[in-house]
From TrEMBL:
Catalytic activity line of the entry: L-threonylcarbamoyladenylate + adenosine(37) in tRNA = N(6)-L-threonylcarbamoyladenosine(37) in tRNA + AMP + H(+)
Residue span(s) of domain Gcp-like: 27-318
Binding site for Fe cation: H115, H119, D311
Predominant location: cytoplasm
NCBIfam families in UniProt: gcp_kae1, T6A_TsaD_YgjD
Function: Required for the formation of a threonylcarbamoyl group on adenosine at position 37 (t(6)A37) in tRNAs that read codons beginning with adenine. Is involved in the transfer of the threonylcarbamoyl moiety of threonylcarbamoyl-AMP (TC-AMP) to the N6 group of A37, together with TsaE and TsaB. TsaD likely plays a direct catalytic role in this reaction.
MF GO annotations: tRNA N(6)-L-threonylcarbamoyladenine synthase activity
PANTHER family to which the protein is assigned, alphabetical: TRNA N6-ADENOSINE THREONYLCARBAMOYLTRANSFERASE (PTHR11735), TRNA N6-ADENOSINE THREONYLCARBAMOYLTRANSFERASE, MITOCHONDRIAL (PTHR11735:SF6)
Subcellular location per the Swiss-Prot or TrEMBL entry: Cytoplasm
Key words, A-Z: Acyltransferase, Cytoplasm, Iron, Metal-binding, Transferase, tRNA processing
Protein name: tRNA N6-adenosine threonylcarbamoyltransferase
Organism in which the protein naturally occurs: Shinella pollutisoli
Tagged with keyword Ion transport: no
Amino acid sequence: LTILGIETSCDETAAAVVARDAAGRGEILGEVVLSQLDEHSAYGGVVPEIAARAHVEALDSLIAEALARAGRTLESVDAIAATSGPGLIGGLIVGLMTGKAIARATGKPLYAVNHLEGHALTARLTDGLSFPYLMLLVSGGHTQLVLIKGVDDYERWGTTIDDALGEAFDKTAKLLGLSYPGGPAVERMAKNGDPKRFAFPRPLVGEARLDFSFSGLKTAVRQAAESIAPVTEQDVADICASFQRAVSRTLKDRIGRGLDRFRSLHPGIATPALVVAGGVAANAELRATLQALCDAHRFRFVAPPLNLCTDNAAMIAWAGLERMAAGLPADDLAVAPRSRWPLDRQAATLLGSGK
Ligand code: ATP
Ligand code: MG
Ligand code: FE
């Protein structure tokens, strides 16, 4: 089976053609991602209007490019998968409408894919993982610990009650006058900083629930910067290093509890897997922390290549293939995009929030 995937939920326009064989192995036949970073960097964040317009301009040629790289045509794929939420509504409309138009014109089935499901299933494409496993999604819009039980079967164990982790990096960078996106800038500065200089809060550490909170950390960074004005380059480095240390320690506590819970639910799995996804997974200190934590808990730490951790269309295509292979029905062409769409059906009913 081969499928064309389309992703337009945030600030990446992407298309990919992915195949899945009878044994369940996936292969990316062709993919292309266009980041809109340059369009948004002057504003210090993603501007929805600009994003939607950029998706419209780029998508058709990106689809053609992905098909060309795969040596396929619209007629020679078996289905279309398009992200239909959660995300910025303008971009979602562009991608989903394009997917519908292709499906209508070719008569192929359309799969309206949840962006988070794309992140959740990527490790089965890259590493052939089997269910169940745990996923930590840490991006600009999401911070979630999710139990991946099967296709269309997810249990959200924890989420942020305020800022996403990538957002905390971005806001911290902005406060300190560093460039956008903030994650790489903070990480670069932290290399020359003293992680012990500031005792930043470690939100929710010690609590039994598996949620996250990062807005207090951002406030503490602001107070630290204000207390030492004028701030030197060394001060900024020290704040960044201390911030990153606080984040690492917080994740260590939160995720450690998640690993324990997984172990008690599934004592029969000798070496379960923790998968990381999202742009913050690029951070070397956080990766090292998660690796050490997994080693200590006898978990396997799976970090897919970074271009598949951040937003891409191969994961959307793959999620579509997984849904097909699991016998889930294709979507009606009347399906509507959803800016909020939690992965966990129970969370969807209880909270009605995409965060
Ligand atoms: P979504 O949340 O909808 O999946 P997004 O575009 O916000 O999409 P990603 O593209 O996956 O998320 O990741 C971007 C985020 O990752 C930004 O907040 C950025 O600051 C953060 N980030 C990138 N590199 C690093 C790094 N080295 N350290 C920490 N954070 C990083
Ligand atoms: Mg992005
Ligand atoms: Fe994403």
